[in-house]
Amino acid sequence: MTIRPFLLILVAALSLSPLVKAQVPQEIVKWSATISAQHPLKPGARVTALLSAEIENGWHVYALSQAPGGPVALKITVPAGQSFRLAGSTTGTKPQRKYDPNFEIETEFYTESVKLSVPLMGEVNAPSGTHKIRIDVLFQACSEKLCLLPATTHLEVTADVAALPKTNSSVPTRGKIVASGGASLADGPIQAPLSRSIKFQRSNKAQANSSEMPKPSSASRTAS
């Protein structure tokens, strides 16, 4: 259900009044953020950002699950182009539910405080070092008398990314021995071509045969 025209006029009028101008959403709802990791993360690892808000007495903030057609629902985003990105749905404090006659719908909201868990995932090619992660929170705060215009708070957390372990370059290279004709024999250390080995074996055998032939005796040499 859409908001009735008189409600839009009411919100516009209130936004121009001195009372509302004196009310800053970020002062009514104070947001903060931390990160769950206490040690360097591997590239591509998951981590959770923990968001919390303290809400001024007499005010409330509409929930993540607030249905459209009325007040603006809470929304968490992570701008693109960072070393970390959203990795799932945000979860947190269970909201209260109440029918709002002004919006003529069931509303869901938080009072006093709210805690949220935002799942994040690092990029696999993120370089080692400390990375800043920006998290944007869009929210709308209302009291029993008036609603403030939606506002966005920019939060920032940091996460350390560890360097990838270096590979050992001294390990011998292994490959496949391929005979003439392209047939693969077995996996093993790279060796000389099979044809050279066969020639070498034949040469050794010829030398062995020549050494075993009987030498002519001195009598045979004299008779000739």
Can you characterise this structure?
With 224 residues, this protein is α+β, with helices and mostly antiparallel strands. The protein has two domains: 5-161, Thiol:disulfide interchange protein DsbD, N-terminal domain (Immunoglobulin-like, Sandwich), CATH 2.60.40.1250; 173-208, no CATH class. The protein is 20% helix and 39% strand. The strands form four sheets. Strands 1, 2, 5, 6 and 9 form a five-stranded antiparallel sheet that branches. β13 (174-178) and β14 (184-189) form a beta hairpin. Mean pLDDT is 79; it is low at 1-17 and 218-224.
List the helices and strands and how they pair.
Layout: H1 5-16, H2 18-21, H3 25-28, E1 29-35, E2 46-55, E3 59-62, E4 75-77, E5 84-86, E6 91-92, E7 96-100, E8 105-111, E9 113-122, E10 129-139, E11 141-143, E12 151-161, E13 174-178, E14 184-189, H4 194-212, H5 218-223
Antiparallel strand pairs: 1-2, 2-9, 3-8, 3-11, 4-10, 5-9, 6-9, 7-8, 10-12, 13-14
One letter per element, helices H and strands E, the order comes to: HHHEEEEEEEEEEEEEEHH
Q: Supply the CATH architecture of the largest domain.
A: Sandwich
Report the strand count. Answer: 14
Structural class: alpha+beta
User: Any low-confidence stretches, pLDDT <50, length ≥5?
Assistant: 1-17, 218-224
Strand content: 35-45%
Radius of gyration: 39 Å
In the CATH hierarchy, what is the class of the largest domain?
Mainly Beta
**3D shape:** elongated
Kindly report the name of the CATH homologous superfamily of the largest domain. Thiol:disulfide interchange protein DsbD, N-terminal domain
For the biggest sheet, the summary is:
5 strands, antiparallel
Total number of helices: 5
Summarize the amount of helix as a percent range. Answer: 10-25%
